[in-house]
Design goal:
5 strands; Beta-Lactamase; globular
Length: about 140
């Protein structure tokens, strides 16, 4: 299994200059957080995948109010460490355990040091497909 293709460096470097239509056109969920974890922007793809409307989550704390299941070292800890260090760019797998919509995803956290905001990109995790092994059975003569 692979972690999944991370968003391109070009997307990460230009995402903070994208308008709402450009963010909505991206093929994965995009959430912009301030240094405290408050949601600033939330694209259409993430809204569709999570079942949460942007107007219901913008202005709320992602880690406490929207996805409290992320308050763990592997997720929130990375966010806090990156904010404290002033440097964050990591990709990892995560399981969102939403009540009616559990999802295995690949998360990318990226700190935009010019704006001091973190971009959280969410892609559905798809395991690599492998061909089934074929077994030959020889009849005894």
């Amino acid at each position: 299994m692979s972690v999944g293709a991370a968003p391109s460096l070009f997307v990460l470097e230009t995402i903070s200059t994208m308008g709402e239509e450009e963010l909505d056109a991206l093929p994965y969920g995009v959430i912009q957080l301030d240094a405290q974890g408050v949601i600033l922007r939330y694209n259409e793809c993430e809204s569709r995948l999570s079942g949460l409307a942007p107007q219901d989550v913008i202005g709320k704390n992602f880690f406490r109010e929207v996805a409290p299941c992320t308050q763990m070292k592997d997720f929130y800890g990375r966010f806090c460490d990156g904010i404290a260090a002033g440097k964050l760019h990591c990709t990892f797998r995560y399981h969102f355990a939403f009540g009616g919509n559990p999802r295995d995803v690949t998360i990318t956290l990226f700190l935009n040091d010019r704006k001091q905001t973190v971009w959280l990109l969410v892609q559905d995790f798809k395991p690599e497909k492998t061909e089934p092994q074929r077994v030959r059975i020889h009849a005894q003569e």
